[in-house]
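Board work, copied verbatim: MFS transporter
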Amino acid sequence: MQQTETTTNRLRLRIAVTLFYFSHGLCFATWASRIPDIKTMLHLSDGSLGTILFALPVGQLVIMPFSGVLVTRFGSHKTLIVSLVLYALALTNMGLATTAWQLALALFIFGLAGNVTNISVNTQGVYAENLYGKIIMSSFHGAWSIAGFTGALIGLLMISLQLTPYVHFWIISGVVFLIIALNSHYLPRVEEKKEVEKKKGFTRPDSFLIWIGIIGFCSMASEGAMFDWSGVYFKDVIGVDGSPVILGYTSFMIMMASGRFLGDRMVRKVGRKRLMQVSGVMISTGLFTSVLFPYIIPSTIAFMMVGLGVSSIVPIVYSLAGRNAKIPPSIALTIVSSVSFLGFLMGPPLIGHIAALSSLRISFAVVGIFGFFITFMVGRIKGIE
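↓ predict structure ↓
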């Protein structure tokens, strides 16, 4: 009887953490699904959009030194609940923007709340994995990917119903608030502050954390490119109009989600190092294919390759950080996830500025180099098996 109760509690814990990952991903995917519409509504060029998108990483950079402190001081449980509420509210603000500077301000706030949510939810993921007694980190990130796919489909529905981004964003925020209300009680409660005190002499990050953070940066820069620019690429480069604009983004999300739900099994079969090296090659191959063959079928297949390539890298990076013996998980994840997620936020504006100087195809080719860099660096870093 006691064993059954324990199993039920573990399952509830896993479901709760999974739903918070899902909510985080859903908020971002909702914003990403309406970028082409907001770009058109505000009459923004590629260069202007790229500049405005920089407000997201600026917001993240401003809050980054304090995110780990918040998690340590208040615990990842409380911090996650508050930050996710603010993240959902920040999403609605972007639907109110009527000028470029208003959108930039809304994105800045979105970046502030998003960074704290990202670090909090991944800290919760590490503790949930430890309490569950089984490798499940990849499945959490799979839920984030499913949220991206779900957000894309909902975005397609909202566009077909001709609902404004503001109404769309409030509907999604309401769903997120409901998830928080129903599941926050089941999140793992761990005293991060006590763990920091136990390992007080080991708070200095080692080079291993920095390097795996850079690998995560490259992967998430590629991922961010798909989130923010895949729709624009299909519309402006391939020449697709209407609902099919979201085809590239959707195919990318399907493969990324599929890869993440298979990620734990693949790690056990081929090892972390081999899987990450192959993944890097797939990212580069996919992006270069879309550049060389800018047609709807080749580019859709190419975006699927990119999705499969990025699927396993970040879960592996976060899992490695959480297992670091020198630093408590909350601090290690603050370091690694901050560096990694910075790529997710800086990749899109980088593409916009390169596109303004050359073309969108050239900017995708530049991002494609990141995949080869991942493959190279994984082979050089000691400690990845």
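The chain has a mean pLDDT of 87.
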